Amino acid sequence: MNADENSRLPVIEYIAAGGVVLVENKVLVLGRPGRQEVRLPKGHVEEGEELREAAMREVGEESGYSNLRIIADLGVQQNEFDYDGKHFIRQEYFFLMALTDAVKTAGEAEFQPKWLRIEDAIEQLSFQVEKEWVRRALLER
Predict the structure, then answer these.
(1) What phi and psi values does residue 57 have, to the nearest 5 degrees?
(2) How far is 31 from 86, CA to CA, in rounded Å?
(3) For 55, which of 9, 17, 33, 115 could close a Cys bridge (C-beta 3.0–4.6 Å)?
(4) 3-140: what fold?
(5) CB-side exposure of 128: number of CA atoms within 13 Å?
(6) What is the pTM (predicted TM-score) of this model?
(7) Rounded to whole angstroms, how far apart are CA atoms 109 and 112?
(8) By 3-state DSSP, what share of the chain in percent is helix, strand and coil, each rounded to 5?
(9) Tens of pLDDT along 23-58?
């Protein structure tokens, strides 16, 4: 799709927050078989919600791991993409997180949480921007 076609798509802008959860030499990723993706946990920041609060909520909802603590703010990146006939502009805020305990409940059904060695996670993550979040997390730990 060229720039002219892109400018005709409806534009959706939103803010997302998520986490890079590290435990020893492993990172939490989410398989998403319905889209054949491997992702980091993140999602929409709801109106009135703080970024840190949204990140912890989204990681917990998607993965089932809700006993988390934030170690560091990894910053923000803007991500633009076309999907389903729309052009999305997403401001992504990510945080380095750790588990306070390994208790897990059922997460969202579309996601399959798994722990990958850091090198394997960087290789298997579906999107370059998410690989960058893991690299940033390694600098902060």
Answers:
(1) -65, -50
(2) 24
(3) 17
(4) Nucleoside Triphosphate Pyrophosphohydrolase (3.90.79)
(5) 4
(6) 0.85
(7) 8
(8) 25, 45, 30
(9) 989 999 999 888 889 999 999 999 999 999 999 999
Domain boundaries defined on the chain:
3-140
Q: What confidence score (pLDDT) does residue 2 get?
A: 47
- Joined together, the tokens standing for residue 117 give 């060695």
- Name the residue with tokens 């109106």: 47
Single-letter code of the amino acid located at 94: F
Contact yes or no for 136/127 (Cβ under 8 A): no
Q: What is the DSSP letter of 10?
A: P
Six token digits for residue 7: 């400018």
Whole-angstrom Cα distance, residue 125 to residue 29?
8
Confidence tier at 7 by pLDDT (50, 70, 90): low
Q: Which residues contact 83 (CB under 8 A, 6 or more apart)?
A: none
Residue with tokens 């078989």: 33
- How far apart CA 133 and CA 129 sit, in angstroms, is 7
